[in-house]
């Protein structure tokens, strides 16, 4: 199977830190709900954007791993952030976290600034869609919802 392909329209300036589009020929779709910067017990260890971003991204990757997926299987990610100035000031540090956890994989992404998030004191929430190629291991745990 051919891997995921990034779309680069002719004449467009290349995007920085995201892809304009992704083509995935086939696979299992994984939809990851919005993840905030809390731990597995739903406790925040910081009210700051940078550690919350790192934890939220780790949470996305943990959910994806449950389906047998890897970071490079993510084809779309949406970020909802409360504080535009804080985000802009933290871009370099957020980029370092991204590269450590995602390497050089940049899915199609949207950054949306919002007035509030449900889980206080969340500063950022990340949701993702991934496509796991056919034949990948499935590591699913039955949940009460799926019974």
What percentage of residues falls in helices of 4 or more residues?
Answer: 25-40%
In percent terms, what proportion of residues is strand?
25-35%
Radius of gyration: 16 Å
Shape: globular
Summed over residues and divided by their number, the pLDDT gives a mean of: 91
Supply the CATH architecture of the domain at 29-38 and 46-135: 2-Layer Sandwich
Q: Based on DSSP secondary structure assignment, what is the total number of beta strands?
A: 6
What is the number of helical segments per DSSP (H or I, 4+ residues)? 2
Largest sheet: 4 strands, mixed
The computed structural class is: alpha+beta
Q: Can you characterise this structure?
A:
It is a single chain. With 147 residues, the protein is an alpha+beta fold. It has a domain at 29-38 and 46-135: 2-Layer Sandwich (60s Ribosomal Protein L30, Chain: A). Helix content is 25%, strand content 25%. It has helices spanning 49-66, 84-102, and strands at residues 5-7, 21-23, 28-35, 74-81, 108-113, 124-132. The strands form two sheets. A four-stranded mixed sheet has the order 3-6-4-5. Helix 1 packs across helix 2. The longest helix is centred in the middle third of the chain and has 19 residues, at 84-102. The radius of gyration is 16 Å and the shape is globular. The N and C termini lie far apart (32 Å). The model is unreliable at 141-147 (pLDDT under 50).
Key features of this structure:
147 residues, alpha+beta, 60s Ribosomal Protein L30, Chain: A, 4-stranded mixed β-sheet, two-stranded antiparallel ribbon, 6 strands, 25% strand
